[in-house]
């Protein structure tokens, strides 16, 4: 099934999608928008355009397992998105994805303006890869 991952941010929101076999997660873009409602509409449109059957929204839980204001904002985003689409919307723990994305971009020597342009879609791809790995390793829990 095709799954869309969202790394929701204040100014930029990264998107990634997998193929129907759930094997390959690929970045599909960054939404440069600060308006909550507008981002909701654009993500819903992307879900329709890519014909996804599920949406995963990164949930930035604190390292100690608590939820801060950012995690609540992402939960609110997922709840509002669920009202706009006909597919399930799930929160997925994204702890460490920005660090992983930064490490990947360091390894590929992506710097400066180019780094800022792609870090959010790289983070969305890492979120999706994490979710896909979980699905493969825990099919009974889904």
Plain-language structure description:
This protein is α/β, with parallel strands linked by helices and 142 residues long. The chain has a single domain (3-137), classed as 2-Layer Sandwich (Nucleotidyltransferase, domain 5). It is 47% helix and 22% strand. The chain has four helices and five strands. The protein has helices spanning 36-49, 69-84, 97-107, 112-137; strands spanning 3-7, 12-18, 25-32, 54-59, 89-93. It has a five-stranded mixed β-sheet, with helices on both faces. The model has no long low-confidence stretch (mean pLDDT 88).
Keywords:
single chain; 142 residues; alpha/beta; Nucleotidyltransferase, domain 5; five-stranded mixed sheet; 4 helices; 47% helix
Q: Quick gist of this model?
A:
By secondary structure, the chain is an alpha/beta fold. It has helices spanning 36-49, 69-84, 97-107, 112-137, and strands at residues 3-7, 12-18, 25-32, 54-59, 89-93.
CATH topology: Nucleotidyltransferase, domain 5
Portion of residues in helices?
Answer: 40-55%
Shape: globular
The total of helices stands at 4
Corresponding CATH superfamily: YqgF/RNase H-like domain
Count of individual beta strands: 5
Highest CATH level, the class: Alpha Beta
Layout of helices and strands:
Blueprint: E1 3-7, E2 12-18, E3 25-32, H1 36-49, E4 54-59, H2 69-84, E5 89-93, H3 97-107, H4 112-137
Helix pairs in contact: 1-2, 3-4
